[in-house]
Description:
This protein has helices at about 10-15, 55-60, 65-75, 85-100, 170-190, 210-215, 220, 280-290, 315-325, 330-335, 345-355, 395-410, 435-445, 460-465, 505-520; strands at about 5, 20, 30-35, 40, 105-110, 115-120, 130-135, 155, 160-165, 195-200, 225-230, 240-245, 245-260, 270, 360-365, 375-380, 380-390, 415-425, 425, 450, 455-460, 470-475, 480, 490-495. The chain is of the alpha+beta class.
Amino acid sequence: MSSLRVVSSSLALALSCATALSAHAADSPRPLYDWSTTERFDASRVPAYAGRHDAVYARIDADMDAHIANLQRWVRQRSISAQDDGIDAMANLVADDLRALGFAEVRLVKTPGHPGVLGYYDAGAEKTLVVYMMYDVQPVEDNWQIDDPFAGSLVKHERGTVLMARGATNQKGPQRAFLNALDAMIKTNGTLPVNLYVVAEGEEELGSPNFGKVIEPWVERLRKADGAFFPMNIQRPDGSASLNLGVKGIVYFELESKGGAWGGPAKAEVHGSLKSLVDSPTLRLVQAIASMTTPDGNTITIPGYYAPVKAPAAEQQRLINTLAAEADDSTMQRSLGVSHWIDGLSGREAIVRNLYDPTLNINGLWSGYTGEGTKTILPHIATAKIDSRLPPGLEPDDAYRMIRAHLDANGFKDVVVRPMSGYPAASTSVEAPLVQAMLGVMNKYGAKTRVSPWLAGSAPFHQFTRTLGLPFVFGGLGYGTGAHAPDEFMLLHPAEGVKAAGLADIEKSYVDILHALSEAP
């Protein structure tokens, strides 16, 4: 059962009031959520995993040099999905490593994009786990402190010895660490405590457009598993951790305004002086986008857009109550370089807004001349890339339908909506045995864990929770930073005073997670 404790009477009084998600007037389309519980979820009261697997731990310690070399081998293989750089070689490396570990079934899966990898290890066990992996990485920037981001460099850092490379923490490092743990278990015990499926894709950094194709050949087999897991570093340097039980969904699309029968130049730009007589596609696009939000850009005005969002259930309220009691908005704002949240929100209201509000965000906007100096033209085309994050309840097809209907109703039928990707939200109950097993292992290693109903970001985890119908958890010990940025690293050997796990304990915790799941009811 979940572990709960009652908050102080003063906070209980505050929580008894309805949570207002907006400081706007009462006619805001945002719903008001009634808060029904003052209880908090206390992850520390989940019993710590008590199992000991000393022979496997000793093997991990003895093989640490080889295990570090495995991480280096993975990050040295380029696999930039956006540039199709090294993708096939990395897919084959993953497949070959699974075969070397003793996975009897391994296959490459062709898709319209990059290939996937499927693997199965039959341990003859009662429980079966699906392990998700992504083998692709982001492009690299020029301003790294090391000469080659694909060299697998071991660097002395203020946090300790780190593996600095593209993919070190996102996600090749923790994934190969998981395979290292499997290697130690198999070499020590001859098998694993659970049967394992590995499903790996090479397009996560592209929005996973073909991940459904990757799992399709084994979808009926995968549905019979007991849960799904994604190895990931979720600790901070102080040893605390953030465990998210799901993700928002997303739609990502382009809006385009082009001259034509409605007005504006249809074939090419024209002289800017003709604006007195000629419509501007650029201004039309700006007005179409502006029509979808309030003037401050912070409330979506598309009719019905907030209505499908599911209100926080009691379980989610308990998780949020704990997050709110420990919230530090000012520190997060400083880390992001922003002065305040929208509407001056803080604490629980900020958390609920972040988790339960759909978003509408412009990623890029371009038209006409953007070079040096001046060029007075009236462009014939304007384009914007937009994403909308979707909380549970708001489905991608419905979001696209409402966006199209809103533009049509406001006189923008000529504005093209070009969908590029989309998938729904995913979430798992904190009561799921897989989640409880994870929390028990985190408690064994003294990692204070903050649990959130889901992440405000997006990933294709609905393929596990909806397509396969499995509980899904992503996390693990370990610290890394710099994902999608210069100087990405994963901590291997912590410096004195750093409480995040090093590689040896990361791998030992993976051993414990598999055993804890095998013993779960």
